[in-house]
Amino acid sequence: MRFLWVNDKTEGGGAVKLFGSARAVLEPHGHQLAPFFGLFGPDTVDPEWEPLQPPSVRERDPFAIGLRAFPSRAVTRQLEALIDEFKPDVAVVQNVHQYLSPAVFKTLRTQSIPIVFLMNDYALYCVNKYAFREGHPCHKCLDRRYYRGALLGCSLKSGPMRLFESTVRAASLQYSSISDAFSCAGSVYTNGSALIDRLVDFGFPRTRIVNGPFPLAIDAQPLEDAAALGDYFVYYGGEAAAKGQNVLLDAFELLEEPLHLKLCLLRPSEALSHRVGRINAATKHRIEIDASSRWETGVRETVQSARAVVIPSLWNSPHELVAYESFALAKAVIVSSNTGNADLIEDGRNGLVFATGNAASLAAQIRRLAADTKLAIRLGDAARITYEHQLLPES
What does pTM read for this prediction? Predict the structure, then answer.
């Protein structure tokens, strides 16, 4: 089969990981994949498909983002040319946030191509994609009154970009609602009970929602000697209020015994960096920020040797790819109770669960693993079994 993979961009998050995993699993069996990326980095698109990608824009250029949020004849022409050249049997649409408009759904439907909508956030109705506001999950815009998101500045950005991005996103969502773009998807593939329930609330028939693991093939193996794991905890990913980094730092401030935490962050803010400095100066803890490493250039090895990975998300996430990667590396994880990650975990068997947003609850679970190496190893072994039985993509 021929799969057309449509995605907002290749840089940041798990987008390019999922595309790469899909290729690694499908191409050995004779299937073909072609990308259509709103924004792509060097060497992330095969040369044969690069001329058929959307017109180039600069990353985080507000004017480009504003224009790309709405139907673009230039983008449509490129997509139609790629379809004509590749002749896909199925289109997988992952994200249409900033550099692609929901109008791609209409183009694909016009071309009579079946569409699978791969949902890993709340972008189909939420201005900031996390369904998160003022420190808590927020699903008010299920009623499709998107202007509210613009008036309240629901973007997770700060400063002037907050108002700009929230207004653009609200207008784009209003267009998608009026044009009924998302209904063009024949099926939705996602996971996490909270997200699935919200999709049904939004209007997707439950019969069109497929609940399954994301297709992520992990390019790493657990430590050969699990007993040699380090004494540090690790958090890695982007910095956003919905991801709960501040709850993690709150928990460390409650812990009296000296502990070691590594934060592998994409573009850490000045405020977070200053807070880490204050904690280090006022306590016996050692908190390190690594802003330069990525999964392939150091983070993978950092996770491999960690005592545990902490995923303190505050939003009602689906499964997060950090959990998959941690499980594959036989790593103990500590996750929030109201996220899709908790759907994967039986507390005390293959990981630990803490009450979402509760720093004292998180501190107790960190303290528990810090004091019990055997427990960390046992939870990690069970996490690896969960990965092999439930999350490993079929070959």
Answer: 0.92
